[in-house]
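Record 1 of the preview.
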Amino acid sequence: MSKIKIGLPSKGRLKDESLAFLKSKKLEVVSSFGERNYFFNIKNNNDIEGIFLHAREIIERINDGTLDIGISGLDLLKELPDAYSENVKIYKKLNFGFANLVVAINEVVAIPKSSAPIIAAITTSLPVLIPPSVLKITSCLKPFNVKI
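->
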């Protein structure tokens, strides 16, 4: 029987929350090769082998069949071509690791006192999910959390 191959995020809040989720299910991630090694096993379970990857790469590896299961961000899946959504199945939304939306404007834009629309070049970190056409510029742009 072949081992189940699992991918987990390699850093950040999503990694921490993924490890806590697995531990709550009595699946403890262990690495006998040290903190800087990307490969891991599940304690007392020889049927699973894992690798820490960038969250987007987890989706790509599930899509191409080199991983069987993984934890990643729904925002990242939605930003990839539609073929990924056809090949990657969502089994459970874990309700953690919410995305931060970053908005950037290519130059300083004076905010007029009128309510007339402002036209400016806008870039978002999630261009498919949140295209610039749905963004409204206010006098104070700050990062905010997006629940997807």
